[in-house]
Amino acid sequence: MKENNNHSNAKRYGMVIDLDKCTGCGSCMVACYSENNVPFKTDETNKLDSLNWIRVYKISNNKPYPHSEVCYLPMPCMQCDGIGKHGHSPCVSVCPAVATDYDYSTGIVSQIYTRCFGCRYCMAACPYHARKFNWWDPVWPADMEKYLSPNVSARMRGVVEKCSFCFHRYQLARDKAYLEKRQELAEDEYQTACAQGCPTGAITFGDLNNKSHAVYKLKKSPTAFRLLERLETNPKVYYLSSKSWVRRAGDNYLAHEETEKINNKVKEPYEAKEHL
Amino acid sequence: MSSTDKNQTVSSEAAPDSVTPEPEIHDSPPSTTSGWAVFMFFMIGFVGSLLSGWILFPELLYSKKEQPIDFNHAIHLDLVYDGCNSCHYFRDDGTFAGVPGMDSCVDCHMDVMTGAPEEVKFVDEYVTPGIEVPWLIYSEQPDCVFFSHSAHVIGADMSCESCHGDIGTSTHLPVYQENRLTGYSRDIWGHSISRLGKPEPGEPKPMKMNDCADCHLEKMGHKGACFQCHK
Predict the structure, then answer these.
(1) B170 touches chain A (CB under 8 A)
(2) What's the whole-model pTM score?
(3) Quick check: A178 contacting B, CB < 8 Å?
(4) B92 to chain A: which residues are within 8 Å by CB?
(5) Any idea where the domains of chain B sit in the sequence?
(6) Complex ipTM, two decimals?
(7) Which chain B residue has the Cα nearest residue A108?
(8) Is A181's Cβ below 8 Å from some Cβ in B?
(9) Of A195, A199, A196, A171, the residue nearest A185 (C-alpha)
(10) Is the model's pLDDT at A37 over the cut of 70?
(11) CA-angle at A255, arms to A251 and A260, nearest 5°
């Protein structure tokens, strides 16, 4: 009962990011800032206190010149739900205020700013640095306050915020579906701003459980991996990369461990769980 | 705990015994009249605090505001083609238009028709200068709440009255009451301060978070995740 929302089937929204296609241009970050009323400062050089719901990291293989390679890694919230204990995300289980919960109908981890009191346990618990803390009240450039989106609540000083997979777009898409008396959403009705903003189409978004969605096939590709898979957070963001060093950078491996073997071994039980 | 601590505790407990004053000796048995006086005194205080709690407090808590125009639903219902939908309609994208903008009124109200004082005020102050009427919204939820009219009106086939009461057929708009502390409308909490019992027929239903969740629990079997109603 708990897993069913109204009349529609439970979804498991997720993302597949093709790192071979990512040029590191940062369009996804810009799209996200404007979509979600994310505050910014004139000087964003100190990356430790800049707020962003999706951040593009740069990783390199640390080899000298002729062999050196870099890869850009966009990281939104992974919307973890843990293995077995469906809904056991690291951040949700530590929040003392129930300001964040796991939505069984969509698989999205919420963040309710009016409930959050800023203890930042969730930030400590998150292995992906997906959560950001508002050290200051947002300061919008002249007049910009009027252009903020009314579909996303604005945050204030002292609360934690994070990527919501543009959940308000899901709410609005449901509104339309209700009007048209439909139970299910089409794949293109609910897309995140970053997926739509990406000029190379590196980001694919959809329901990981739905066989007709693109992400369903992509996540099964042999070059797919997830970050820190062995922590059993069961993240819903998959990455694709043809380069083995990139796949190896997705987790901490001992020198003798073989990435692919471990990846495949760890992946199996997740796959089984997803179809429960 | 160390042994010295224990000793101290024991001795401090023993101490009062040694200094306990002798029980007071009453010259006469306690009189029943003073008992009554105490009881009456208590009752006056008790009733007084109840009165101030139930009557004075709500008066102080809510400030009253008049709507800019006293809109008459009843006379308009016979005039429009499509009932409530002519003014409170769904847009094609599924969102609800809410309180109507000037475009729903100007077709008929370019000029004063009957000369009723409210109509003259409406035309002179809003229609002619082209200003939107700043309606006060009785049911307005905090900014962080997402509410979907299509889910309830179309999805669950609920009537407007079941939540809003009979304002849709009223001849006068009720007085808007604003909570002085939170700035929210009184309709959210409900008109009964104690929130006991059901709202009177025709009164809007209280819409605190638990009121939404209680109905969802009953109709859907679960209260829903935070993101269902929050954004």
Answers:
(1) no
(2) 0.89
(3) yes
(4) 179
(5) 2-63, 68-99+135-228
(6) 0.86
(7) B227
(8) yes
(9) A171
(10) yes
(11) 55
Sequence ranges of the domains in chain A: 19-188
The predicted pLDDT at position B6 comes to: 43
State how beta strands A237-240 and A13-18 pair. Answer: parallel
Three-state secondary-structure class, residue A161: strand
Residue with the two structure tokens 């000087």: A43
Q: Which DSSP string do the residues of B137-205 spell out, in sequence order?
A: -TTPPPTTB---HIIIIIIS---HHHHHGGGGG-SSPPPEEEETTT--BHHHH-S-TT--SPPPTTSPP
* Pairwise CB contact (< 8 Å): A175 & B154: no
The CA-atom distances, in angstroms, between A143 and each of A139, A146, A147, A148, B203 are: 11, 6, 8, 10, 40
Q: What is the pLDDT of residue A270?
A: 47
Task: Specify the CATH number of the domain A19-188.
Answer: 3.30.70.20
- pLDDT at res. A158: 95
Please compute the mean of the pLDDT values over residues A211-240 and round it to a whole number: 92
Predicted local distance difference test score (pLDDT) of residue B162: 93
Which of residues 122 through 161 in chain B touch A, CB cutoff 8 A? 142-144, 146, 148, 150-151, 154-155
A103 to B227: CB separation less than 8 angstroms, yes or no: yes
Whether residue B95 lies within 8 A of chain A, CB to CB, comes out as yes
Give the model confidence (pLDDT) of A94-111 as tens digits: 999 999 999 988 999 999
